[in-house]
């Protein structure tokens, strides 16, 4: 039966421990080179991937797609690239990037390796939830590790049978006599399963949310019981180390697209964690989830990257075959580029958060960009003709990856429900 006294990883018989405050900001400087120890210097975090990083990610994308195995090489590239520090505040060694910068970076990564892009996006999403809802102690312990690339974060929210809206969770969290929690349940479609160093696990807690007082240093929710369309009252988030003995990843799931993303199952069995592992107040996870869309970070950025990759493939084909001389070909490529630029524009608008309701724009951006990506990839596949009807041509991977975006949470059907739900009230 696993237990942990802090978010610090537990291995073998090593007793749990809490890292001292000195480990946090002061141990991270902008000079020196990365060392082999857990505490290492971190250079200024980049806002966009370098050409070398993109080249390395591109090189491992095809192999991971063929094998369907977790793309550990891509994760290693991401750890070393500095991109994992994107949304970590500067005060904790990160770049402090806004949603526009995040979406731009994710798009560029997706254009060469969509699996790496979704791992990066999900990791940044978890980091943002920690920044917004974590206690000062959680910030001191977790954020520097995320900024330095030592920890890859993943979200474990989905379950088989819970529905896309996460309202019927079977994963439960019970209070223990010592004030901690005991979690039991199983998660599915967890990106970076088996690769992540910390998981944000969503569970149905047993205590009525109205009876819980927010913990000192943790923001309170205006209403924990209001139906937000996503999640349910009485749900709570927990941060659990990837090598906690009560957390068991399973990467046997074989996807059609995003095959290198290590999307699989995660079980928590008699998983004991202290109350300090709780993220946010007890029972208010639904309100935390509802605020995610307001951040402007959007999976539409992944779709735009895939669409751009398909468009680039069409241009490469046209140049190789000398097709630019034909007006019909040029105009066809312009039509494709217009779709890509339109999707990119709505993703950028979501990131800027300038709309009257930024959350709605974020939802629309995923719907628009994912649909555009599927159309563009299909049109490019037709344009390529027999050249694209070869198993090894990347256009086939682009098509499977583009379809995956629509199925990622919130799924496109759920996005439509979240947009239209207020109309029926």
From TrEMBL:
Q: Where in the numbering of this chain does the Acyl-CoA dehydrogenase/oxidase C-terminal domain appear?
A: 297-414
The protein's UniProt keywords, in alphabetical order, are: FAD, Flavoprotein, Oxidoreductase
Q: Pinpoint the Acyl-CoA dehydrogenase/oxidase N-terminal domain residues.
A: 60-149
Could you say which cofactors this protein requires?
Answer: FAD
Domain (Acyl-CoA oxidase/dehydrogenase middle) ranges: 155-267
Which InterPro entries does the entry mention? Acyl-CoA_Oxase/DH_mid-dom, Acyl-CoA_Oxase/DH_mid-dom_sf, AcylCo_DH-like_C, AcylCo_DH/oxidase_C, AcylCoA_DH/ox_N, AcylCoA_DH/ox_N_sf, AcylCoA_DH/oxidase_NM_dom_sf
Instruction: Please verify whether the record's keywords include Oxidoreductase.
Output: yes
Pfam families in the record = Acyl-CoA_dh_1, Acyl-CoA_dh_M, Acyl-CoA_dh_N
Composition bias of kind Low complexity appears in 216-225
Q: Where is this region: Disordered?
A: 1-44, 205-229
- Which PANTHER family does this entry report, sorted A to Z? ACYL-COA DEHYDROGENASE, ISOVALERYL-COA DEHYDROGENASE, MITOCHONDRIAL-RELATED
Please report which protein family the annotation says this sequence is part of.
Belongs to the acyl-CoA dehydrogenase family.
Entry protein name: Alkylation response protein AidB-like acyl-CoA dehydrogenase
């Amino acid at each position: 039966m696993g237990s942990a006294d802090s978010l610090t990883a537990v291995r073998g018989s090593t007793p749990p421990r809490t890292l001292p405050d000195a480990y946090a900001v002061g141990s991270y400087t902008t000079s020196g080179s990365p060392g082999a120890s857990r505490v290492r210097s971190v250079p200024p975090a980049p806002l966009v991937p370098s050409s070398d990083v993109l080249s390395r990610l591109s090189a491992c994308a095809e192999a991971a797609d063929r094998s369907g195995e977790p793309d550990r090489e891509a994760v290693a590239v991401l750890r070393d690239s500095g991109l994992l520090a994107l949304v970590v505040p500067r005060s904790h060694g990160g770049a402090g990037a806004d949603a526009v910068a995040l979406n731009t970076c994710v798009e560029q990564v997706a254009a060469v390796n969509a699996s790496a892009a979704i791992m990066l996006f999900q990791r940044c999403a978890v980091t943002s939830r920690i920044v917004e809802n974590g206690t000062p102690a959680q910030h001191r312990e977790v954020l520097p590790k995320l900024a330095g690339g030592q920890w890859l974060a993943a979200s474990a929210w989905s379950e088989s049978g819970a529905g896309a809206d996460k309202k019927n969770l079977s994963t439960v969290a019970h209070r223990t006599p010592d004030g901690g929690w005991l979690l039991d349940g199983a998660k599915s479609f967890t990106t970076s399963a088996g690769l992540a160093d910390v998981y944000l696990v969503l569970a149905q807690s047993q205590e009525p949310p109205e009876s819980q007082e927010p913990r000192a240093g943790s923001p309170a929710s205006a209403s924990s019981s209001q139906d937000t369309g996503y999640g349910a009252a009485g749900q709570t988030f927990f941060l659990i180390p990837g090598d906690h003995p009560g957390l068991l990843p399973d990467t046997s799931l074989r996807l059609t697209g995003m095959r290198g993303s290590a999307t699989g199952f995660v079980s928590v069995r008699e998983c004991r964690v202290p109350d300090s592992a709780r993220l946010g107040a007890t029972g208010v996870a639904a309100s935390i989830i509802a605020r995610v869309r307001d951040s402007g970070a959007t999976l539409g950025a992944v779709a735009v990257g895939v669409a751009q990759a398909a468009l680039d493939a069409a241009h490469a084909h046209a140049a190789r075959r000398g097709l630019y001389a034909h007006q019909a070909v040029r105009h066809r490529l312009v039509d494709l580029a217009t779709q890509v630029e339109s999707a990119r524009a709505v993703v950028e608008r979501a990131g800027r958060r300038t709309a009257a309701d930024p959350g709605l724009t974020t939802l629309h951006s995923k719907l628009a960009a994912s649909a555009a990506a599927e159309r563009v990839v299909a049109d490019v596949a037709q344009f390529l003709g027999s050249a694209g009807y070869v198993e090894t041509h990347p256009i086939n991977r682009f098509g499977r990856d583009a379809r995956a975006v629509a199925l990622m949470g919130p799924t496109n059907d759920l996005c439509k429900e979240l947009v239209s739900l207020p109309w029926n009230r």
